[in-house]
Amino acid sequence: MRTSKIILTSILTIMLVSANAQEQLISQEKEAIIKVMKAYKSALENKTTEGTFELFSVDSEVYEQGGIEGTYANYIEHHLGPELSHFNRFEFSDYTIQVEVGLPYAFTTETYTYTIELQSEKGASPRIINRKGVATSILKKIDGKWKIIKTHSSSRNTK
């Protein structure tokens, strides 16, 4: 009977230690994922794509407003990259992020409001765009780094 109690106590201790280690690992992974997503958001607010290509897998897929944009490189070359040069300001507010980790994948949902101030013709007032948005992304841990493999965003006018 005493041997059974020792074995049971040992098994329960191992399970508890393992669960705590797993919880700590997931917490660290979530922090790394949030860092990737915030780095991308920060680049957009700074109106640059510098350093963002390393956040995406080479064969990533970008979807925006119901459209298929292709890979991140294609999206930057043909869509977002040229747009950024027409912005005076691009700001996010009311930003929240939820992260779910299921190694080697992670899933994020971001909600936010964004404000874009477009450059104007000489003498004209700049046009201001305010939109409420949501983005979902799938990340995969590739060679020890989290990479965005799919992302989809949409927005609507603020009320």
From TrEMBL:
<dbReference type="Pfam" id="PF14534">
    <property type="entry name" value="DUF4440"/>
</dbReference>
<feature type="signal peptide">
    <location>
        <begin position="1"/>
        <end position="21"/>
    </location>
</feature>
<feature type="domain" description="DUF4440">
    <location>
        <begin position="33"/>
        <end position="148"/>
    </location>
</feature>
<protein>
    <submittedName>
        <fullName>Nuclear transport factor 2 family protein</fullName>
    </submittedName>
</protein>
<keyword id="KW-0732">Signal</keyword>
<dbReference type="InterPro" id="IPR027843">
    <property type="entry name" value="DUF4440"/>
</dbReference>
<dbReference type="InterPro" id="IPR032710">
    <property type="entry name" value="NTF2-like_dom_sf"/>
</dbReference>
